[in-house]
Specification:
alpha/beta; TIM Barrel; Rossmann fold; 15 strands; 19 helices; six-stranded parallel β-sheet; seven-stranded parallel β-sheet
């Protein structure tokens, strides 16, 4: 007998660096940064005679009274608490609860008590068995996924996703990463042998999104350009597809490693295809720390100059930065602040080093007796930017938190953020055929709210206005920088970390 299923992407426990909760908190719009790919992909794997509905709880309330027979939950570690809460309530209401996704795959023992059915790993090749077993009433309590050919992955059911609720849709063109960064849990889940979708498969997904009105897509790859031959073939196909769009081109964002900067032709092809921004894990200028955690691709190069190459090519960069490695000493906060100051990168994504379960770092810290007790999950769920599940080696926990709090206030002070915007504008290539005009930033709803904070914020907005007037082709980048600044301010305030006075004093341990 056919069934019905309700797929839920739970809300995050706390604001994230990239999740744009500020848009809702400040009453601007009910929207998230990136649409959920997990629920839409699973929806496409469900038998056609089942009734399927989707809830992204970040933008819509959960329907507790759903008539669905089955409730499917997915999520990352930052959604752990809500997954457990939803599972308990729906089981109490008599629903069959299935839990899968990244966190369930990496920490199955933690999720096992909360699910009727636990799915660990990638689901494409086992979905048929799971749903057939549920339909027959002979389901198993646990299913283990495989490493499928990604061309078996269906086109996600974006028609079921809430409309106009995300700035970017998602397309995953590969899974896995050949690097072996000690703190990365992605390679534990998806593997180090990268698997790819054919270019034609990718553009079929883009066709669907384009027809639904999306004009921005996050290419949800762990390292989009690491295999150059594959990346070139895909970018050439996307470029040709994008040139043929009748109602304007799509723009893209993705994740790459710093070695992209060493390939000017590939950089140019990214821009030609419509890539606008990339996330790069810079982590730290401390080479001892990079070597410690096997971030070898960042060693023996001038990191700042490599980033400048990417910006000169016509891409905006978000830089991932980490503090708290075993080789980070008392001067690391000042070193990080000085390094960030040298970058043409407004959007810095900072955090303390965390050891996710199933990673080599987690095992190393466990063997050394340096893990915070596992029942203290705040650090892993991202509840605070100054929490970690690792007991630091070269400083006290109080010193680490104090130094990180100082660093956050320093790099997200309006003046420091403005200087990085100026550096970006100075390097980013001049647009052709652009005219100066009233492409003002201060009229944006976020800007109007931010201006109420005070003179420093107003000066930042005036700076952005001036750049937008002189360089109107940068306006979309500037709006993205504004949104990110507001999100980080909101997150710092949410976690009671914002203290502008710290931006003008020396780092606690370096004083």
């Amino acid at each position: 007998m056919p069934k019905s299923i309700y797929l839920i992407n739970p809300r995050e426990s706390v604001p994230g660096n990239h999740s744009m909760e500020v848009l809702q908190a400040w009453g601007i719009v009910n929207m998230v940064g990136i649409a959920d790919l997990a629920t839409t992909t699973v929806a496409a794997l469900i038998p056609k005679d089942w009734a399927v509905s989707i809830c992204d709880e970040r933008v819509q309330p959960v329907d507790w009274d759903t008539e669905a027979d089955v409730v499917g939950l997915t999520g990352k570690v930052s959604q752990r608490a809500r997954i457990i809460e939803l599972a308990a309530e729906f089981r109490r209401r008599g629903k069959l609860v299935v839990i899968g996704g990244p966190y369930a795959s990496l920490s199955p023992a933690d999720m096992r008590p909360h699910a009727d059915i636990l799915v660990a790993g990638e689901v494409e090749e086992i979905a048929g068995s799971i749903f057939a077993d549920i339909e027959s009433g002979a389901w198993q309590s646990e299913y283990l996924g495989t490493k499928p050919d990604l061309n078996l992955s269906p086109i996600p059911r974006w028609d079921l996703y809430p409309r106009n609720s995300a700035a970017l849709a998602q397309v995953q063109t590969s899974r896995g990463c050949p690097f072996e960064c000690e703190f990365c849990d992605v390679i534990q889940y998806l593997g180090r042998k990268q698997r790819w979708k054919d270019p034609e498969h990718v553009v079929r997904e883009l066709d669907v999104l384009y027809s639904l009105g999306y004009r921005g897509v996050f290419l949800a790859d762990d390292n989009f350009t690491v295999v150059r031959k594959r990346a070139r073939a895909l970018l050439e196909r996307i470029a040709a597809w994008n040139r043929a769009r009748p109602d304007g081109r799509m723009h893209f964002a993705t994740q790459v490693s710093i070695d992209l900067a060493r390939d000017p032709d590939l950089l140019a092809l990214c821009v030609e295809a419509g890539m606008r921004s990339v996330f790069i894990g810079i982590e730290t200028p401390n080479e001892e720390s990079l070597a410690e955690t096997h971030k070898r691709q960042n060693l023996r190069i001038d990191l700042a100059e490599e980033i400048r190459k990417v910006v000169r090519a016509g891409l905006s960069v978000t830089a991932g930065m980490i503090v708290g490695f075993d080789h980070d000493r008392a001067d690391i906060f000042e070193r990080q602040a000085a390094f960030v100051e040298s970058l043409p990168v407004p959007c810095i994504s900072p955090g303390l080093l965390i050891a996710p379960p199933s990673t080599p770092l987690y095992e190393r810290m466990a063997q050394a007796g340096r893990l915070v007790p596992p029942d203290q999950m705040d650090a892993l769920t991202g509840a605070s930017l100054v929490e970690t599940n690792i007991r630091p080696l070269t400083m006290s926990e109080r010193e680490l938190k104090g130094g990180m709090t100082w660093l956050l206030n320093r790099i997200f002070s309006p003046s420091a953020y403005g200087r990085r915007i100026e550096a970006f504008a100075a390097l980013y290539p001049q647009g052709e055929g652009t005219k100066r005009g009233a492409n003002y930033i201060r009229g944006h709803p976020l800007a109007r709210r931010l201006a109420k904070y005070g003179e420093s914020e107003q000066q930042l907005l005036a700076l952005m206005d001036g750049i937008a007037h002189q360089r109107p082709e940068l306006r979309q980048h500037l709006i993205e920088f504004l949104t990110y600044f507001c999100q980080m301010r909101y997150r710092l305030e949410f976690n009671h970390l914002w203290n502008p006075a710290l931006a003008d004093v020396a780092a606690p341990l370096a004083a």
